[in-house]
Design brief:
Distance between the termini of chain B: 39 Å
Helix content of chain A: under 10%
Number of strands of chain A: 11
Shape of chain B: globular
Order of helices and strands of chain B: EEEEEEEEEEEE
Oligomer: heterodimer
Radius of gyration of chain A: 13 Å
Distance between the termini of chain A: 35 Å
Largest interface: A-B, 31 and 27 residues
Largest sheet of chain B: 6 strands, mixed
Largest sheet of chain A: 7 strands, mixed
Helix content of chain B: under 10%
Shape of chain A: globular
Radius of gyration of chain B: 14 Å
């Protein structure tokens, strides 16, 4: 019953370092998402992938890249980390055949950039 | 433009009483979905309830019900008989069809405090 698995759970980076956050789901879902959660701002969509082989920008894509490696995996990369990217990052997946499918979330990655 | 608005940053409710958390949304699509999620202090996102734009009846799931007023574009969450374990952040979200799939947008959340 793994659902959505994110790694790592915690990470501290120095400004300018690069890092890839990993996400995998075992529910055969078509769509996957990356969000960031900042205090008082709820979840903001960074990138999403409606299906394997496609990716698209969300509300706050600057400074990030994504790769939909296969149906299961969707990674988020910070090429040159900045303090403004300190946040909690959530990966989510959804079946997407109809709109009444809820998103399933991972436990989040707490990322601090010094 | 803000698509999901939750106007209550924080709410207090007495244990065993009912509470309503407000949510208004903005969309030009006819087909969309509305969701509520709970985020306890442990951080995980828990799906609570769903309402489809074509559903004529308000959704209910146990102690949770969704007061859907389509003309007013509101989708308020009602929690009946509040429990201490209901203390958490609550997020309203809307899913719209986009680019062959669906995209979900979240509100800023409401923090609920249940008092003993």
């Amino acid at each position: 019953n793994a659902g959505v698995t994110q790694t790592p759970k915690f990470q501290v980076l120095k400004t300018g370092q690069s890092m890839t956050l990993q996400c995998a789901q075992d529910m055969n879902h078509n769509s996957m998402y990356w969000y960031r959660q900042d205090p008082g701002m709820g979840l903001r969509l960074i990138y999403y992938s409606a299906s394997e082989g496609t990716t698209d920008k969300g509300e706050v894509p600057n400074g990030y890249n994504v790769s939909r490696l296969n149906k299961r995996e969707f990674s988020l990369r910070l090429e040159s980390a900045a303090p403004s990217q300190t946040s909690v990052y959530f990966c989510a997946s959804c079946r997407d055949r109809t709109s009444n499918q809820p998103q399933h979330f991972g436990d989040g990655t707490r990322l601090s950039i010094l | 433009a803000q698509k999901i608005t939750q106007t209550q940053p924080g709410m207090f409710v007495q244990e065993k009483e009912a509470v309503t958390l407000d949510c208004t949304y903005d969309t030009s699509d006819q087909s969309y979905g509305l969701f509520w999620y709970k985020q306890p202090s442990s951080g995980e996102m828990i799906f609570l309830i769903y309402q489809g734009s074509y559903d004529e009846q308000n959704a209910t799931e146990g102690r949770y019900s969704l007061n859907f007023q389509k003309a007013r574009k509101s989708a308020n969450l009602v929690i009946s008989a509040s429990q201490l374990g209901d203390s958490a952040m609550y997020f309203c979200a809307m899913r719209e069809p986009r680019d062959g799939g669906f995209k979900t947008i979240f509100g800023a959340g409401t923090r609920l405090f249940v008092k003993a």
